[in-house]
Specification:
mainly alpha, about 35% helix, about 5% strand, two-stranded antiparallel sheet, 2 strands, Rossmann fold
Length: about 120
């Protein structure tokens, strides 16, 4: 008897359609839409969508400030904790730094003021 099957549960699509948008725009949009709702939880600690956006922008700016640039490799080796999504999304924001419209400012960002993010230089 085979342990795999080609049958899908009723209503489950055969494939998913993903938006053609940079992850930074998705993250900024989620922060604007969901704000102070919990995005990640680890034990009793919570990270909101807005907190994730702000901290990921700070992480992206820290990569820039440390001289990480195009062609450099960034490796993430973290335990399962709230620092991981911050580092992950911050790294993706830095990689996509030149892809408008998502940009992180050096000051505290507020995705609620814009559909994507507060514009500024990297």
């Amino acid at each position: 008897m085979s342990i795999t099957t080609t049958l899908r549960p009723p209503g489950l699509p055969s494939s998913l359609t993903y938006p053609d948008a940079p992850v930074g725009a998705l993250l900024a949009g989620a922060a604007a839409r969901y704000g102070d709702r919990t995005a990640f939880q680890h034990g009793e600690q919570h990270l909101t969508f807005t907190g994730l956006w702000d901290q990921a922008c700070r992480f992206a700016n820290a990569l820039r400030d440390r001289g990480i640039g195009p062609g450099d490799t960034v490796a993430l080796h973290l335990p399962n904790c709230l620092a991981f999504p911050v580092a992950y999304y911050g790294t993706l924001l830095w990689v996509q730094r030149s892809a408008p419209p998502t940009r992180c400012s050096r000051r505290r960002t507020s995705p609620r003021n814009s559909p994507t993010a507060a514009p500024s230089r990297w």
